[in-house]
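Per-residue structure
===
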Amino acid sequence: MKKVVIIGTGAQGTTVARRLDEESTVGEIICADYNKAAVDELVSGLKKAKGAQCDAYDVNSLIECAQGADLIVNALPLEFGKNVLDAALAVKANYQDFSSSTAFDEDVNLGWIRGMKYQFEVYGPKFKEIGKLAIIGTGSAPGLICCATRAAMKHLDSCETIYNIVWEGVEAERFQPFWWSPETALQDMMEPAYTYENGEIFVKEPFADPIVRQYDYMDKPVTFQNHCHDEPVQYGLNAEKYFKGCKNAYFKYAGVGMDFARPLYRAGLLGHEKEDIKGSMVEPFDVIINHIPKPPKFRHEIQEIIDEGIVCDDGCMVIEAYGKKDGKDILVENHVFSPGLAEAFEKAGMTGEMYLTGQGGYLFSKMFVNDDFDMTGLISSDMLPLDKVDKYFEYAKELDIIMETKIKEI
């Protein structure tokens, strides 16, 4: 029986805890967070869970919470990644991170890339030495979307260009621009966007370089724009070994959150530099965050929003992989379908975001506790062997998270 320690009790950590509570291979779950009230509320509804208060800025506090763990799931913001990694090594546990890289470097544009490389080069051998596996980037994007991108490679002899395309079109009557951490979402909105072009990684302006798509299940065309995400960096670093020599990779994003954040970005309201506003020094970012509601994570909170009314319950997650097969130009489209807000709540008492991101992450946790992984070291989710990708989607299908493949000659 496995002991799992979940650090962070936001929407993602909460979803993983609920699902693992139902796993027969899990004997004990420790839900840890600095917010004791959130921990207590979560564990009160679980059978196998105990609560713990910890300070993620303090590695020793994390180590104390994680004693005896077979798996540590990191559902905290990016800044805590290094500490949780170090704690996992100290207690000799497997490690899963919803995020993809940690802040090892102060350089805004290049630090993320160097941080990711540092994890592979430094932490990879450390986890291999203790015979454990660490996987980074294990939510919906990165995570589920990376597995879907890997799966597209089965249909190509060589790959030229990859697009990861995400539309989060869920809109409620209530003001709720984000269904996960607003701090994380808006921080990503203001950061330079990464692209991989002609074999090199570039930083581009966010909200730029639009593309328009309308797939057959969408009732209108949607404009997708640059957004700061890990996937182009990961695919670029792993292009030769895992992506059939891919030369170009892009992440394009659309939805209610993007529509809300774009004018704020253009007005300079997502900045962290303090400004003198009528004699008070304030960060514009903090003012915006102060006026955005927290995402709902408990059943009664979600029910209230649904009862008030849903304006739109749409979205898409699509991989477009362009390349060659048997000398022909081919487009592989992998479409990922999952329940929206109303259906996710009916099925599991969750939002659609929790269903896809939290459960997308839970599927990696399920593979850990079921001993489906036979590798050691540190990898990102786009580096899973194809047989593990198949296992992932086998489990996903049980949750009505389905991938459909369309192959087109172009």
